[in-house]
Amino acid sequence: MKDFKVGVVQLRATSDKDENIDKMKSYVTEAAKKGADIVALPEMWNCPYQNSYFPKFAETECEKTYISMQEVARENNIYLVGGSIPIKEDGKIYNRSFVFDRDGNEIYKYSKIHLFDIEGFSESDTISAGKSLGLFKTEFGNFGLAICFDLRFPEIFEDMRNLGAEVFFVPSTFSVRTGEKAYHLLNRVRAIDNQSYFITPAMARDNELSKNAFSHSLVVKPSGEVMLDMGTDEGLEVVEIRSHVIEKEKKYMPLDRSRENRKNN
């Protein structure tokens, strides 16, 4: 893996899709000016995280939001991990993330597998679950991608790690209640489990449509140390992801050797 700089965007989703798209473009452009090689967006950044909005805001692939992400990646010569947006396909709606390269080409997409049906909120009332996951490859290395509630399922990260993922992106919109209990814990323990960086862009909190968003976009080191916590306000941060930090942690705590011991017994 090679070192790179990642821009983490924390923004609010208003009821005006065009406003959300314009804001996204502004933050991505600012991140590129600050030296970001990769920019990561939150879960459902173009759409308030409510069942009533998912059908209204859902697009087919290659409509306005998709094209806007392509353009901003190409114009700024960056990789874009496009958080997630509601996508219509075959009569269903998916919570889907797209990744674009420096030329604006789609290089990967992932639909959220584990849906949030907790605390009186049922994401599956409007969203259908995805079925597969893998890796996306860049000039900097091989990366994994999951979405929010997926964090509670360690086996999918183990699968991606075994395929060669060294950094994980997890766009999220945790609720305040679940976030206070488990958000930091889950990000930190998944980073420790996999000895990988976890980059978790989250929705900013407001007093209207996102008042229940926990926010707190994170970057967590392979040791479980939190190196970035963006609080609850809208904003952008650019941080450096360093390969030697991963190598150092694996040398200090040789988990793979212990895994081999288990296989051989």
What is the compact description of this entry?
The chain has 265 residues and is of the alpha/beta class.
Fold and architecture overview:
- The chain has 265 residues and is an alpha/beta fold.
- Helices cover 31% and strands 25% of the residues.
- The protein has 7 helices and 15 strands.
- It has helices at 17-33, 54-57, 64-76, 154-162, 176-194, 243-252, 255-264; strands spanning 4-10, 38-40, 79-81, 85-89, 92-100, 106-111, 117-118, 121-122, 135-138, 141-145, 167-169, 197-200, 218-220, 226-229, 235-241.
- α1 links the parallel β1 (4-10) and β2.
- α1 (17-33) runs parallel beside α3.
- The longest helix is centred in the C-terminal third of the chain and has 19 residues, at 176-194.
- The model has no long low-confidence stretch (mean pLDDT 95).
- N to C succession of SSEs: EHEHHEEEEEEEEHEHEEEEHH
Strand segment tally? 15
Total helix count? 7
Characterize the main sheet.
7 strands, mixed
Structural class: alpha/beta
Strand % is 25-35%
Shape: globular
What is the arithmetic mean of pLDDT? 95
Intertermini distance: 31 Å
Rg from alpha-carbon coordinates? 17 Å
User: Low-confidence stretches at least 5 residues in length (pLDDT < 50)?
Assistant: none
The percentage helix is 25-40%
Organism: Peptoniphilus olsenii
Protein name: Amidohydrolase
Family: Belongs to the carbon-nitrogen hydrolase superfamily. NIT1/NIT2 family.
Keywords: Hydrolase
